[in-house]
């Protein structure tokens, strides 16, 4: 994942910064508790595609 892209991407729901989790291939928004998938190095920034984080994943 390109570091420059990570600097400009924000959560589409709340506009907070995102954390990239390389092993899970996800961009995580902690305030919304959503994880957006990254497929073939392309972030899928659709709320419908995001999964809700479990309590143990925060």
TrEMBL record:
SUPFAM superfamilies: Trm112p-like
Species annotation: Azospira oryzae (strain ATCC BAA-33 / DSM 13638 / PS) (Dechlorosoma suillum)
Source organism superkingdom: Bacteria
HAMAP family: UPF0434 (MF_01187)
Family under the similarity heading: In the N-terminal section; belongs to the LpxK family. Belongs to the UPF0434 family.
A cellular component annotation (GO) from this entry: cytosol
InterPro entries hit by this protein: Trm112-like (IPR005651)
Name under which the protein is recorded: UPF0434 protein Dsui_3264
